[in-house]
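Format notes (please read before filing issues)

Several people have asked whether sequences and structure tokens are stored in separate files. They are not. Every record keeps both together, in the order shown below: the sequence lines, then the token lines. Line labels are part of the format and must not be stripped during preprocessing.
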Amino acid sequence: MISLRSTPLHAASAPPQRPLCAHCLRPVSACLCHWVTPTPSACEVLILQHPLEVAHAKNTARLLHLSLPGSRLVVGETFDATTLQALLPADRTHMLLYPPTRSEGHAAPAVLDPAALTAPERLRLVVLDATWRKSRKMLHLSPGLQSLPRLALEALPPSRYAIRKAQQPGQLSTLEATCTALAQLEGDATRWQPLLAAFDGWVAQQQVYVPN
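Then the structure lines:
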């Protein structure tokens, strides 16, 4: 169908979009492909990314996804039962990387102890990539996510995420939290150091490009 409406003046004068890297989907001037560090994980990783994080210059999920072969990144705010059934087939034990909150009270699901879990190749880690407030909303809108058992992280390392202010003490970026979880599940923290070192380099680059 051909529209007969005239083009608004502001649309005609809008600046052209910056060219994007076909691989990382970031502007070519801020391409993060140089920092991608392939690190195979025995545990599968599913990243559920809030739509507002997709174009955020300081977001870490894309670097994490590109560095984890076999991982999956799905964008959305609400995940109904049918969608989750497709994303979380019954071939693995699923766990959500998310702490129980006070607002959930006794309704919060069980928290898994990483030391009690075996065979990481039978596990699927579900990660919410969003701000703290938006991640709570994602849980509220998706009862199927609420019911997943939670993974309890052990002693948290200091955050290296200098370009984005944490909303609460002890919070890590999506990449840092996922690396910490996988290190605990697989019992090998040293294997994740190259990816975390690459993350440090990317953060330093972003400090030049993006004001804090």
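For reference, the curators noted about this record: The radius of gyration is 19 Å. Residues 34-154+163-209 form one domain.
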